[in-house]
Specification:
The protein is mainly alpha-helical. The protein is built from four helices and two strands; from the N terminus they run H-E-H-H-H-E. It has a two-stranded antiparallel sheet with strand order 1-2. It starts with 14 loop residues before the first helix and ends in a 6-residue tail after the last strand.
C-alpha cells in the first residue's frame, strides 16, 4: 500500500455523497488490511452505487483508486459476490 494518497472524488458531489464514496474507499482498504464484515461492505457498495450509478464512472474511479492505493475496488466487489464467509479479507497481489 502506498502512503499519503488521495481518494478519487468528484467535488461536484454533495457533502453526503462525498462521505458515502469516502466510506467505500475506507471499506476497500479495510478489506485488504484487516478484513471486514461482508454485509458491511455490501451495504457500503450499495450506497456508493446510488451516488455513482454509472458503470463507466465506477470503473474510472476504481482505476484511479487502484493507481493511488494499490487496492482494487473491482477485486473486492467480485469477492463480495462470490464469498460464502462472513468476513471479507483480500490478499494483496505481489
Amino acid at each position: 500500500m502506498k502512503e499519503n494518497y488521495q481518494y478519487p472524488l468528484d467535488y461536484t458531489w454533495r457533502q453526503e455523497e462525498l462521505v458515502v464514496v469516502m466510506k467505500l474507499w475506507n471499506l476497500v482498504e479495510a478489506a485488504y488490511e484487516k478484513g471486514i464484515p461482508l454485509a458491511e461492505f455490501k451495504a457500503g457498495y450499495q450506497a456508493f452505487k446510488k451516488v455513482v450509478p454509472s458503470i463507466g464512472e465506477e470503473k474510472r474511479l476504481g482505476k484511479e483508486f487502484q493507481q493511488e492505493s494499490g487496492y482494487s475496488l473491482y477485486r473486492v466487489v467480485q469477492a463480495s459476490k462470490t464469498s460464502t464467509r462472513k468476513i471479507l479479507k483480500m490478499e494483496a497481489k505481489s
